[in-house]
Amino acid sequence: MNKRKKIDYLDEISTFCKVSSTVTSTLELEEVLDLITRSACQVVKTHACTLRFINEERDELDIASSVYGLSLEYRKKGPVKIKDSIAEQVIKGKKPQAVLDVLKDPRYKHPNFAKKAHLKSLLSVPLIAKNKVLGVLNVYSTRLRHFSKRDEKILMLFASEAAIAIENAKLVRKLQDAYLNTLKVLGAIVDAFDWHTERQSEKVRDYALAIAKKMNL
């Protein structure tokens, strides 16, 4: 490995560490998703990124959960059928798929939009957590680009970190929902027993605060 390649390699590792740290620094799901798509472009130096989750009941990829570098028009694009798509190979093989020119690949489902947005090359990787594919992460280049095996490895590593961050954020959201439901139940109990004394109200308040503290809310 020559000096130039060593510098590039170290730069890639440094960028990867920085963006991975950023993605795992928050537990708000929407913020996590936005950080993932923005950071993915930094990791492999691309122009745009989309993230879609799998809808197992319909065998399709849901409407894009997060988009970076593309117009709002893309967010309005509907679900994508997995069958006979690029995502099908990514999901089934749990491996990356690189496409040199999406306009010439019949598996790509939005050629008209790609042409309008000047999208050329695509690298798609699975989001895997606990050996289960949650969805796909796609990065796009606006010029023809042969994504290297190193690009694939780096984006796969990043996607692994991203999937863990997504699962953690989803867990926190579930805990928050459970906390709110608990408060509703407590409120119903208070109403049912018609407890109006200050002492009982304080007990309910203290109980709710204790739950919130346990959940870091």
TrEMBL record:
<feature type="domain" description="GAF">
    <location>
        <begin position="28"/>
        <end position="176"/>
    </location>
</feature>
<dbReference type="Pfam" id="PF13185">
    <property type="entry name" value="GAF_2"/>
</dbReference>
<dbReference type="InterPro" id="IPR003018">
    <property type="entry name" value="GAF"/>
</dbReference>
<protein>
    <recommendedName>
        <fullName>GAF domain-containing protein</fullName>
    </recommendedName>
</protein>
<dbReference type="InterPro" id="IPR029016">
    <property type="entry name" value="GAF-like_dom_sf"/>
</dbReference>
